[in-house]
Amino acid sequence: MTTTLHRPALHRRSGFPRLLRWIGLALAWLIVAGLLGWSVAALSIDLPLPWLRRPAAIAFGIAVLAVLVLVRGAGRKMLACLVGFAAVLAWWLTVAPSNDRNWQGDVDRTAWADIEGDRVTIHNLRNFDYRTETDYTPRWETRSYDLSRIRGADLFITYWGSPWIAHPIVSFEFGGGDHVAFSIETRKEVGEEYSAFKGFFRQYELIYIIADERDVIRLRTNYRVGEEVYLYRTTATADSARAVFLDYLRSANLLHAQPAFYNAVTSNCTTNIRIHTKAAAGDKITPWNWRLLLNGKADAFAYEHGRFVGDVPFPVLKQQAHINDVARAADSAPDFSARIRQSRIGFASAAAQ
Questions:
Q1: 39, 59, 92 — which closes off a domain?
Q2: Structural domains of the chain, count
Q3: Which of 52, 136, 229, 309 is most buried, by the most CB atoms less than 10 A from its CB?
Q4: Whole-structure pTM over 0.90, yes or no?
């Protein structure tokens, strides 16, 4: 007697590979749709002629619809769409930054530095005298510093609404109570406002504002409405602080000579800090983390990696780091920087150095 082994029919197994193909095709079209959406946005935002932006974006959208209707075959449709994206990308990459625009008064100069051994001379250091956020007496100064006197670095975190988004400012301490603050910002033209969405495109040049703390910090605590500022002492050694400080200056010098675009993901106030920190940390740099993008949580991330002085729970450290009240009280006092650090965790030891 012959025994027949029963095997599952092939048609019973064919459904799974087909499902995988459909999932793969759906993911591919999702990616293509994202690229096409970016293309429409790039045309509507970055075209140099404002009157042409909307018509160009609409025309591109119509062309995509025509491809989807008239071209046969999913592969050919997808290829045609990708060619359209590539054409927009090729144009977009030609959009060049400039240092020659009608800049707002607080960013109409770029800082730069002469570095000779331990002697650093910073030009166009900002030290404005404010009456309101937009009413001020400009003061662009030239100051010299001795690198051998650098003691460490502090981090300011500024919030203006969402707890998920913030603006970090790094300040370097020199002996004698001198501090040099670096704020990486968008360089806005007269009448221009910042848009988080436009920050993903080529709308804003990047600027490194080098400033006195009585300018860049007091502006946020005393004159802008709704901004809350926190101050942390970092664990950076004098040597590490010096390396990061010099790397900041190199970037400032490059931007002074050759402008670059700000980008909300790749080149912003937080990602650039990480780039400069790597100059000192090397292979010890902390891995990328989502909190570097949603940087309102970057202070918690830094605390977890031992970047702040203070052997206390993070909520305690953050609560005492809030400086708005003391900054308003200090106002234009010559010892503004000392007053906002007084009795704050991590700064007693710093003052003794």
A1: 92
A2: 2
A3: 229
A4: no
